[in-house]
Design brief:
Oligomer: single chain
Strand content: under 5%
Largest sheet: none
């Protein structure tokens, strides 16, 4: 089945400035007003000035950029873990919102793409089966950890030391598992995808991925998710990446 020309696969030349609401009703936090022109980072100004183009991305690259979203959420988890360890004021709503993005965008969408479209093809071809089985088990473990993080982060004050410790343990476990998980997918599984499908099937997967994304999140859903993550980064004070440069 053919699909109309994809609107999101030319994303490299498109603006990602989408404000005014969240994709998921369960993500309950206030979206900040768009930054004043003088407050917009130079790279954002450059990106917003780019015209629409026709450059397409492959299914593997599509999955990898979604890992970029996950990596930014992992940085949010890192920062919340640091605040917990230092016993500093902790805004559980930020972590709750980040966990909701993981649940809806990573687990219910990105990982389902892998489980429905990629893993069966590798198993049928008899390639990387052990890796695929491990990755699927980690998906299940990740969903359990997300549920724990979401439940504990929703606790208003985390006054109980035991709750704070449980939350810190869940965050550490999630971070420890998902960094090697996504690295192995990016460097081993995704590059091998072409070896288990035909060229036509490989191209068709891109349309399948886009249709699924549009069905779940509407037009430009990816860009809305990126903007949600950016708003959380700003609330935590970790949006400006220059702060991570060694001095």
């Amino acid at each position: 089945m053919e699909f109309p020309p994809p609107s999101r696969r030319d994303f490299l030349r498109r603006t990602s400035a989408v404000y005014g609401g969240l994709v998921f009703p369960a993500v309950a936090f206030t979206v900040q007003e768009p930054a004043a022109p003088q407050d917009i980072a130079p790279e954002e100004k450059e990106e917003k000035s780019k015209p629409k183009g026709a450059e397409e991305i492959s299914p593997a690259e599509d999955l990898m950029r979604e890992h970029g979203v996950l990596n930014r959420v992992l940085l949010i988890y890192d920062e919340d873990l640091r605040l917990l360890a230092a016993k500093k004021p902790f805004d559980g709503s930020v972590l709750t919102a980040a966990a909701d993005i993981v649940r809806h965008f990573i687990e219910d969408y990105h990982e389902k793409l892998e489980e429905d479209f990629l893993f069966p093809r590798f198993r049928k071809a008899g390639k990387l089966v052990s890796l695929v089985n491990t990755l699927q088990k980690q998906h299940a473990a990740g969903r359990d950890l997300t549920a724990q993080i979401r439940e504990l982060a929703a606790t208003a004050t985390l006054k109980l030391v035991s709750d704070s410790d449980k939350l810190a343990d869940a965050l550490r476990a999630f971070l420890r598992m998902y960094r090697p998980h996504e690295a192995r997918e990016d460097t081993v599984l995704f590059p091998a995808l072409r070896s288990v499908v035909s060229a036509h099937e490989y191209d068709a997967l891109g349309a399948d991925f886009e249709k699924k994304e549009d069905d779940l999140f509407g037009a430009d859903g990816y860009f809305k998710i990126v903007d949600q993550v950016a708003q959380l980064e700003k609330r935590l004070g970790i949006y400006d990446i220059s702060q991570f440069t060694p001095k």
